[in-house]
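Interim report, section 4.2 (structural modelling).
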Amino acid sequence: MNPIESLIKDLADQHGRKRESLLPVMQGVVQQEKFLSEYSMVEIAREMDIPAAEVFGTATFYSFLETKPAGKYIIRVCRTITCAMKGKNQLLFAIQDMLKIKTGETTPDKRFTLLETNCLGWCHKAPAMLINDEVYTEVTPEKAREILTGYMKDI
Amino acid sequence: MAYSYQLKRVDFIFRNENDYEKVLSATIKKKPEDIINELISSELKGRGGAGFPTGLKWKLTAESKAPKKYVICNADEGEPGTFKDREILSKVPYKVLTAMAVCGYVTGATEGFIYLRGEYKFLEEELKKVIDEFHYYCKEINLDFTIKIFMGSGAYICGEETALMESMQGRRGEPRNKPPFPTQAGYMNMPTVVNNVETLVHAFTIFKYGAKKFYDLGVQYSRGTKLFSVSGDTPKPGIYELELGMSLQDFVYEFGDGDTKAVQVGGASGFLVPRKKFKDTAIGYEGKLVGISLPTGGSMMLFNSSRSMFNVLDNYLEFFREESCGQCTPCRVGCQQLLLGIKAVKRGEKPASYLNKLLKLTETMQLTAKCGLGQSVANSFSSIVENFREEMIY
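Predicted structure of the assembly:
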């Protein structure tokens, strides 16, 4: 059994193989692999006995279930109104500049993916961003550079 | 107005009560009907934004006959400008759990879920610990009730209760047709109570202090307090618990930066109130005798005169276009066309009168969209376009 097959089997054992378990299983794969490849989705469908098209349809509905290859650290910058008013663009430019990628891209070393996302619920401390599940608030470009430098050191 | 409301700060929600065990065991000694009547007499309404009477919701679910029932706490807080539920779950989670357990007792449900949005995953671990402790106590008093966390994955629409249940059943978060309402056929087609996080905390307050204490706060039709998430151009952004029924003018005195041009009440799906209407607007549920009253899920975003209302509307529409589930045509195509439309008017490719066509389109959406998302785009769109028409054109 290859690693993805066994990961999916473990997740299905843990959460169950009913349709209600589909989201937790997919979330588990994303947690580990950072995204759901076509192969993973077919494998989930087989393991849980759900049509592959249904798995694909469900996965693509949710913005946190990536279906494109993503880096080890997914940066999600909030683009909704308050963050947009409080310097989201400057923050994005700083990150783009530092990582040499555009929004929506992944660095060639597969470490970072930069995305924009909708309201993160930190409007009183805007601008905000998520790196994987970690929240950063009131992120100035300067602060963003420091945070990212920390992540870059971590191998 | 006959009566001038001052802002009244209250401290119920985040007050640290170290006696949830006592409240729970005392409450479940009462008869379910008595608990429901207590809730009904408090006039507590849902704090997620829609404002359905909570006692009635519990009652309807209690009366539905079914082999299984569920209680769901809706923590899919996605409305732009709202961040109160996160604070509740990190500061006073046990109040939420207690109210869920009481709801289980009243309705006959033995399973509860907290639908937590993916953006708040960092809360999960701590919350699990609190739930484990809570389960331990439930066993001690022989209350058969368990709570699980269900993580969302980044979809605004899943805050709509039927979309939320679709999502929990492993499907796309597409709202269902209503009726049947969740109180009859909800999660797994069984009767289900879906309550907002804050609503449950208010229920806890009512169980502990009695309905009267709650009822005495606020104004007619809008009883009790409400958490407000204040953000935007304000010197003191944050979360504040205030009595319902305040005038927007007073609110702006307190939170504005002296140059407030407009306030968005209720997030992107709510209404934008321009300066000239501050004093005629009260914050509460509909039914007040004078002026306009606006309900809110608690989102209050202030804009000062440096902000372009075109950019604000553009940002909202981008949001809706992306978060529309795509299931029904009025919302899917409507959001896209509104966005294209205002951009075309701004660039001068369409005449200013095209805005009237777009306003008509929002009316159609309000009438024909399947759920609250598509229906409420009209709120912010018309209130911005009608009050700041020049900014849309030039």
